[in-house]
């Protein structure tokens, strides 16, 4: 049953991306409408599955790696649909969903795990708050990184005076920079709150020594780099090209944090 549902979802997701790519290449509005319709359907199926799983859980300690990454993909799809409706940046919608599809394909290949996240025995209900805030922050930072990458690519194309169809359909550098800044501005306090909840949970569980874990340290480094990016962007201390790079540096630290795993016991998977 799992294979039919998740792999069927992957097929629909892939078809949506193909339609978006066709519109991206040939400016075919019909293809875009079909891609958007399929993406909405994917979002509805994801939402239904998440609600079903939440109703099954007796407590948040029953969350598995599959559910957390699935929720992360749901957040990316939600952000892309909102962007498609509000700001209409097709390359951004396509790129964010390529990331989402890659993550979903990875968890589909691994299969669902019956093993819960072995985080903290005490204050279990703070766990769901910590995970939700962290995943929301990661989704916003992913969107911001995609926008900053678009900024660098568009800047390079404009500098070389390469006026192709993709460049003509992209918004201005100022618009891309503004949306990237907004994503980071929303994501940074969420990550800080997530770390604060994690710290409170560890203290409540009398495991304060885990605050010196590599994942906590890396997350704090990421917060510092994002705060530097916000300060530089707000005060216009550097041109947009350099602040876009700062955003990507911060996202790189965030990726490194998520890959630490083996050197960390902060998030232990059964």
TrEMBL record:
Residue ranges annotated for the Cytochrome c assembly protein domain, each copy included: 66-255
Residues annotated as transmembrane: 6-25, 37-56, 68-87, 94-115, 127-154, 179-205, 211-231, 243-264
The organism's place on the tree of life at top rank: Bacteria
Keywords: Membrane, Transmembrane, Transmembrane helix
Alphabetized InterPro entries for the sequence: Cyt_c_assembly (IPR002541), YpjD/HemX (IPR052372)
Pfam families: Cytochrom_C_asm
PANTHER family: INNER MEMBRANE PROTEIN YPJD
Protein name: Protein hemX
Species the sequence originates in: Thermobacillus xylanilyticus
Top-level taxonomy: Bacteria, Bacillati, Bacillota, Bacilli, Bacillales
């Amino acid at each position: 049953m799992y294979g039919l549902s998740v792999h069927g979802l992957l097929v629909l997701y892939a078809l949506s991306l193909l339609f978006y790519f066709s519109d991206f290449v040939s400016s075919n509005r019909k293809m875009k409408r079909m891609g958007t319709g399929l993406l909405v359907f994917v979002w509805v199926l994801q939402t239904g599955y998440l609600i079903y799983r939440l109703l099954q859980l007796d407590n948040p300690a029953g969350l598995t790696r599959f559910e957390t990454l699935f929720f992360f993909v749901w957040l990316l799809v939600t952000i892309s649909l909102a962007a498609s409706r509000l700001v209409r940046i097709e390359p951004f919608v396509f790129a964010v969903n390529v990331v989402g599809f890659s993550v979903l394909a990875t968890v589909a290949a691994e299969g669902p795990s019956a093993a819960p996240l072995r985080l903290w025995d005490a204050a279990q209900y703070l766990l769901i708050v910590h995970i939700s805030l962290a995943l929301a922050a990661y989704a916003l930072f992913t969107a911001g990184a995609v926008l900053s990458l678009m900024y660098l690519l568009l800047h390079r194309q404009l500098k070389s005076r390469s006026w192709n169809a993709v460049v003509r359909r992209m918004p201005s550098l100022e618009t891309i920079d503004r949306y990237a800044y907004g994503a980071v501005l929303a994501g940074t306090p969420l990550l800080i709150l997530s770390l604060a909840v994690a710290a409170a949970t560890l203290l409540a569980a009398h495991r304060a020594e885990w605050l010196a874990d590599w994942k906590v340290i890396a997350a704090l480094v990421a917060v510092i780099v994002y705060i530097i990016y916000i300060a530089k962007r707000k005060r216009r201390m550097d041109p947009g090209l350099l602040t876009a790079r700062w955003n990507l540096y911060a996202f790189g630290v965030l990726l490194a944090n998520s890959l630490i795993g083996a050197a960390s016991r902060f998030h232990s998977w059964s």
